Amino acid sequence: MYRRPLQFAARSVAHVSACRAASAGGKALDQEACFRALAACQQAGVSSPLVTPCRTLHVATQLRNVKETRQHTEEEVGAFTKLIEAMGFTGPLKYNKWKIKIAALRMYTCCVERINYDEFFEKCTLPDTLNSWFLVAQLHVWMCLVRMRQEGREGKYMCRYIVHSMWEDVEQRSKIMGIDAIHRKEAMKAMTETFYAAIFGYDEGILSDDCVLAAALWRNLFNRQCEDPRQLELMVEYIRKQMQYIDALDGDDLLLTGEVKWRPLVEENAQSILKVVKPTYNDAGL
User: Fold this and answer.
1) Contacts of 160 (CB under 8 A, 6+ apart)
2) Residue at 253 is within a domain
3) Residue 209 sits in which domain range?
4) Does a structural domain hold residue 236?
5) pLDDT at residue 273, as a whole number
6) Locate the Ubiquinol-cytochrome c chaperone domain: which residues (predicted)?
7) Does residue 212 belong to any structural domain of this protein?
8) End-to-end CA distance of the chain
């Protein structure tokens, strides 16, 4: 089927008019051109196609704006970096790897030296043993891992050395305590299983409600031997406020320094660190 000449001419005039208006920077259509296009359409007995180009232009503008403001949710890496990381090596990072390793060691040190373990043993009724120390230490290491996993490839690289520093420290402490090689190997195996089981449980708890987090603490930290619910409440509150505090720290500073300060276990007024939006009132006080 071929188009009739009059209808084809009318559509061409209308389309040219719409294109001129669009190329003029979004200004209104020229009135004389619009009248000519509409008159041609009426004489030809066809509907005006002026709406279609404008609608198409509006949709195209929206799509272009969406593409321009798109945020990258994942870090883009090259094909070479993906290849060497698939082979088990670490690709180029934003910061020097040695600086990140030193920061990882310093962050683990903050998990060990800036924690009052005696207070945790007292408040949670835990025995003063190497295993109890490890349970409290792994809880703080886990919170650091959760925070650093948000820093892309550099944060994941740092997490590896935080965990590596933890196992090196645990082995050295067991040697100082005089544990023989056979029992030390068995203890390290049991601690490894406990650590990764606790990681899964704490991850599920931090993403869920307080009941799930309390259940994870009851299984891992208290070893299913907690009869006082106030102890679970204390630890759930401690983890929530501690995670909120760590999330507010600058990621680049953590990658370069590894400095972490911990909020105390018991606070008289444990309030949110975020600034509360104060209500605004009018002249009448309403």
Assistant:
1) 104
2) yes
3) 2-257
4) yes
5) 52
6) 122-258
7) yes
8) 72
